[in-house]
Amino acid sequence: MKILGIRDIIGPIMIGPSSSHTAGALRIALMCRRLLAGEPRKATFTLYGSFAHTYRGHGTDKALVAGLLGMPTDDTRIRESFDIARAAGLDFEFVPAPDTPCEHPNTVDIDVTDETGAVTSMRGESIGGGAAVISRINGVDVRLTGEYHSIVVKQRDVRGVLAHIATCLNIFDINIATTRLFRERKGDVAYTIMQTDDEIDEAIARAIAKNPNIYEVRIVKSDRATDAVPPEAADETRRPDGFGADLTPEKAAEMFERLDFATGAELLAYCEENGLGINEAICRRERCMLAADRIAVDDTRRYLAEALDVMRESATLPLTDPARSMGGLIGGEAAKLSEKEAAGPCGELLARATTYAMAVLETNASMGRIVAAPTAGSSGVVPAMLLACQDVHGFSDDEIIDALSNAAAIGYLITRNATVSGAEGGCQAEVGAASAMAASAACQLFGGTPRQCFAAASNAIAGLLGLVCDPIAGLVEAPCQKRNATGVANALVSAQIALAGIGNLVDFDQTVEAMHHVGRSLPFELRESALGGLAATPAACAFCQGCAR
């Protein structure tokens, strides 16, 4: 299982409109590019499941091409990737295969011919929140996540090859994290994938390739956005408790085993035993995780400050400069709400939060820069709550960043024990999870205890349990924009209830489990396929005109 960090929940910082369908798709293609022998010249993308139904509306097509061109997830050129690809001499086509069975609903096969004439075929799955897995290379089942630096070796399956690879890495003082051999038949073609704690130099690949039983060696750099800064510039990363200031990788790995909270109950117990807030506990875990990966400087707060800046821009830009969405369903709603904040029934805080939530989705739907929190489709909920509370109640940026860490902890537990993918669990997994994150963070901002924060998160999940994912025409626009506003309202109500000391019969962990079971019970048509719910109404189908019902 992928080890989740704060950046996996509050992030990626990306171009919209969908973390799983845009950022995740891009990362699949980017890993594919890193497996090529030269620049790509021709590519065929075969799309399955939810990808096949919604790839145009979610920008999956543009993202796949952008990834093959080497663009990062937050590159504003993603919107123009088709034109850039053609100018670079890359021919591409998309082949939807919606009726072909596949294990994961967000699956794509990529067949690429590069400038050397070599052909590479691979399968990738976008598993939610922008994360991706390569599950097949040239017909051999593998598992490559991009979580670590990796070396991928195509070889003849004979004795001595694995030892040769390990010896080369040892000579270059590279620490091996995991080693796996993938093959279809003994003695045939096989792939060795070694994940390492250290970045791998091309000289290592050349040394490994000298073995006559090795056909190809490719380096895949880690997708983990450490954004590491030099120690002398990292004063702001040190917290007053001094925890983990001098952790060695070995000590950090040992401590991480105790801090890798598997459940809300474990995290709550640690908080109460040590007199810590949820944000402090999750940041201790993060520090150990990074140190165990030999990342010397923990710059989590700097990253969260950057994320907050992107959130603020995505929530405020549409108020003065509205942009029409890709699909044309939304655009300008936030500016209208901003003008009417004082006139409606909501009160200042809820009115402002509603405006911000709608604004972020406008930015997202126009392929602007947003922060997935935990996904792009639900990216308006957490920033709307944080920024509205800051505007109305004057919280400092430091307090908001602490609350953002708290939100990350809740999102981490939901992701670990359920899902935040709409294609797997419906909109309850996206807006519902974001609402739980925002509810817990709001509870902390207003002085709530960790136990009350978990109660608030439970309230929020329960309030949106069973919410379906039914994007009209496959676009992350309607009803997504208004559901983000509903999510932030639900979060504030949930926090208010918890702060009043009203408890729950069903605790946080059981509520997450119930959400997971409900999500798996939803039919495919109600899980981001654009084939059910509001997407299947006559008005929606008339708009779509190409509806695949």
From TrEMBL:
<dbReference type="Pfam" id="PF03313">
    <property type="entry name" value="SDH_alpha"/>
</dbReference>
<keyword id="KW-0411">Iron-sulfur</keyword>
<dbReference type="InterPro" id="IPR045865">
    <property type="entry name" value="ACT-like_dom_sf"/>
</dbReference>
<keyword id="KW-0408">Iron</keyword>
<dbReference type="GO" id="GO:0051539">
    <property type="term" value="F:4 iron, 4 sulfur cluster binding"/>
</dbReference>
<dbReference type="InterPro" id="IPR004642">
    <property type="entry name" value="Ser_deHydtase_asu"/>
</dbReference>
<keyword id="KW-0004">4Fe-4S</keyword>
<keyword id="KW-0479">Metal-binding</keyword>
<keyword id="KW-0456">Lyase</keyword>
<dbReference type="InterPro" id="IPR004643">
    <property type="entry name" value="Fe-S_L-Ser_bsu"/>
</dbReference>
<feature type="domain" description="ACT">
    <location>
        <begin position="150"/>
        <end position="222"/>
    </location>
</feature>
<comment type="similarity">
    <text>Belongs to the iron-sulfur dependent L-serine dehydratase family.</text>
</comment>
<dbReference type="InterPro" id="IPR051318">
    <property type="entry name" value="Fe-S_L-Ser"/>
</dbReference>
<dbReference type="GO" id="GO:0006094">
    <property type="term" value="P:gluconeogenesis"/>
</dbReference>
<dbReference type="GO" id="GO:0046872">
    <property type="term" value="F:metal ion binding"/>
</dbReference>
<comment type="pathway">
    <text>Carbohydrate biosynthesis; gluconeogenesis.</text>
</comment>
<protein>
    <recommendedName>
        <fullName>L-serine dehydratase</fullName>
        <ecNumber>4.3.1.17</ecNumber>
    </recommendedName>
</protein>
<dbReference type="InterPro" id="IPR002912">
    <property type="entry name" value="ACT_dom"/>
</dbReference>
<dbReference type="InterPro" id="IPR005130">
    <property type="entry name" value="Ser_deHydtase-like_asu"/>
</dbReference>
<dbReference type="InterPro" id="IPR029009">
    <property type="entry name" value="ASB_dom_sf"/>
</dbReference>
<dbReference type="Pfam" id="PF03315">
    <property type="entry name" value="SDH_beta"/>
</dbReference>
<dbReference type="GO" id="GO:0003941">
    <property type="term" value="F:L-serine ammonia-lyase activity"/>
</dbReference>
<keyword id="KW-0312">Gluconeogenesis</keyword>
<dbReference type="InterPro" id="IPR005131">
    <property type="entry name" value="Ser_deHydtase_bsu"/>
</dbReference>
